[in-house]
Structures are given as structure tokens and as C-alpha cells.
Write a structure and sequence with these properties.
One of its GO terms (biological process) is coenzyme A biosynthetic process. The protein is of the alpha/beta class. It has one domain: CoaB-like (Rossmann fold, 3-Layer(aba) Sandwich). The chain has 5 helices and 12 strands. α1 packs across α5. The protein is globular. The structure holds cytidine-5'-monophosphate. The site of cytidine-5'-monophosphate has 13 residues, from α3 and β9.
Amino acid sequence: EVPADLAGRHVVISAGGTREPLDPVRFLGNRSSGKQGYALARTAAARGARVTLVAANSALAAPGGVDVVPVETAVQLREAVLKAASDADAVVMAAAVADFRPAVYAPGKIKKHGTADPEPVALVRNPDILAELATDRPRAGQIVVGFAAETDDVLANGRAKLARKRCDLLVVNEVGTDKTFGAEENEAVVLGADGSETSVPYGPKEALSDTVWDLVALRFPDPGAG
Ligand code: C5P
């Protein structure tokens, strides 16, 4: 029996990885599968929440009862998340958002131009959606959760990132080689702005998701309907 402790709550989750187009047929992207974000959506729905899943380029099937908003780029993901966040109790940014996008979008396919060397691709910075949301909460008392993939000094880098982004919780994964991206299982430490540290052993992404919802529910400023 799953507790309906998120009943009456609206949660917004971003999942997948953004694609930043160079021209109509090419993009800069990343290897995020969307599995962690979809697991967060499934578990939140099972616990009674109304769920908006902003999904960037994921091939996964929409979970039942979840409102899926498909997006492609970081700018589109920002628009969709901010719109859904206006009445959300919690926002969980599980998507891999590109830090940079091509400065110029070529409306026609970029040509090879004979034997000339290619032009370098100029990049511009994308908005940091997590930092923006956490700094300027669309709704008072909203809980904001980020994810961070680190390759070294996982806890120290995670703590610094949590402070920089001003989120309430940061789920820190160690990445590298075959770990995490595209995998069915995950291992993480969830850092709290209050100094808490919750280790989640290697296991299904649903288990990590349930721990995230436990920690979010503890931080809601008012008692829920569940
Ligand atoms: O800074 P870094 O990319 O490591 O931070 C990862 C966290 O920030 C994730 O929660 C990701 O969804 C979010 N993020 C964002 N906007 C960006 C880059 C990352 O919201 N432009």
C-alpha cells in the first residue's frame, strides 16, 4: 500500500536532455535517457500528487495520469517549467539541461563548402533554470530540488553547488564510465540546505525517487491533504 502523502500537491518534474539546434537537422545534445525523471513522475503520481512532467527528448512512454509537456531546447524547457511552477508545491529539476547553445541557428542545412575547413561553432550561455527558480520562487514555500552529476570530490562539489543554486535539496550522483546515464539503477547522496545528508544505496531509480519525495514532503510548510 502506497501512502497518499502527496495528495493535493502539484509537483513539476523536468526529465531527459535538451537538444540545442545548429540547423534543421543537427543539434548539440547529451546522453540523458529521462529514466530518473520518469521514475520521479511515476512515484509522485502513485503517492497521490498531480504531476506535470516537462520531458526533453525522452523516448520513454508517458506514465499514466501524468501531464506530459514535451520540449526540445533549454529555452523551451525554461518556459514550460516556469509556467507549470506558478502553482506548484515542489519543482524537481532532473533534466540534463545544456549549459550552452549555438549562438546562431542556421535556418537552412549547413553545407560542406568544398574542401574549406569548417567554421568553429560559437556558443552562448543558456539560462540556469534551477538557480532562477530557487532564487525567485514562483510560489512561497515551494520546495526546489536539483540534480548534480559529479566525477570527483562528489560531496564537496555538491555542497558548493547546492549553495550556489540556492535549492532546498540536491541529489548528487557520481558519474563516469557506465554509471548512471541510461542505467536502470542509481546510487546517490541527497544534500539538504539544512545540512542534512541522506545516502541512497545503489538500487532502482524508483527507490531514489521515493527518498526524494520523503525529503520533499518533510519540507512542505503546511500539512498536506494526504
Ligand atoms: O550546474 P549543473 O548543470 O551541474 O547543475 C545541474 C542541475 O541544474 C540540474 O538539476 C539541472 O536540471 C539544472 N540546470 C538548469 N539549467 C541549466 C543547467 C542545469 O536548471 N542551464
